[in-house]
């Protein structure tokens, strides 16, 4: 199971980066945002866990959009540029099938 979770975390990270490389996802003029996506894997006993994410503050605004003023009073009407959600939906069926195969379903 650990190998399956780790493998699909890497695949998810790769798919997010691909979706964050221009429209319909966010533009990537420097590649800094795209490079910020990483994954961390841990296993303890019968538990395997992977976290895929970024430390960039603009991630939420890019994924979901933002309408309204920010803390400095600037007003935004930024449309969403989904990149994480579509990547998760692409990877989910294969991940669930691999988990099912690993546990013998």
Overview of the structural elements:
This protein is α+β, with helices and mostly antiparallel strands and 105 residues long. It is built from 4 helices and 4 strands; from the N terminus they run H-H-E-E-H-E-E-H. A two-stranded antiparallel sheet has the order 1-2. Strands 3-4 form a two-stranded antiparallel sheet. Helix 1 packs antiparallel against helix 4 (84-103). The model has no long low-confidence stretch (mean pLDDT 93).
Strand order of the largest sheet: 1-2
Shape: elongated
> What is the mean predicted local confidence, pLDDT?
93
Order of helical and strand elements = HHEEHEEH
Beginning-to-end CA distance, first to last residue:
13 Å
Main β-sheet description = 2 strands, antiparallel
Number of helices: 4
- What would you call the quaternary organization? single chain
**Share of helix, binned:** 40-55%
Low-confidence stretches: none
Strand fraction equals 15-25%
Radius of gyration, in angstroms, nearest whole number: 16 Å
Key attributes of the depicted protein:
105 residues; alpha+beta; two-stranded antiparallel sheet; elongated
Q: What is shown here, in short?
A:
The protein has helices at residues 2-19, 32-35, 59-64, 84-103; strands at 38-44, 47-53, 66-69, 75-78. It is an alpha+beta fold and 105 residues long.
């Amino acid at each position: 199971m650990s190998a399956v979770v780790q493998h699909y975390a890497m695949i998810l990270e790769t798919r997010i980066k691909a979706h964050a490389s221009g429209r319909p996802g966010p533009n990537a003029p420097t590649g800094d945002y795209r490079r910020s996506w990483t994954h961390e894997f841990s296993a303890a006993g019968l538990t395997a866990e992977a976290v895929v994410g970024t430390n960039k503050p603009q991630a939420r605004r890019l994924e979901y959009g933002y309408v309204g003023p920010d803390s400095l009073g600037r007003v935004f009407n930024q449309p969403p540029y989904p990149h994480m959600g579509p990547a998760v939906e692409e990877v989910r069926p294969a991940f669930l099938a691999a988990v099912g195969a690993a546990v013998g379903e």
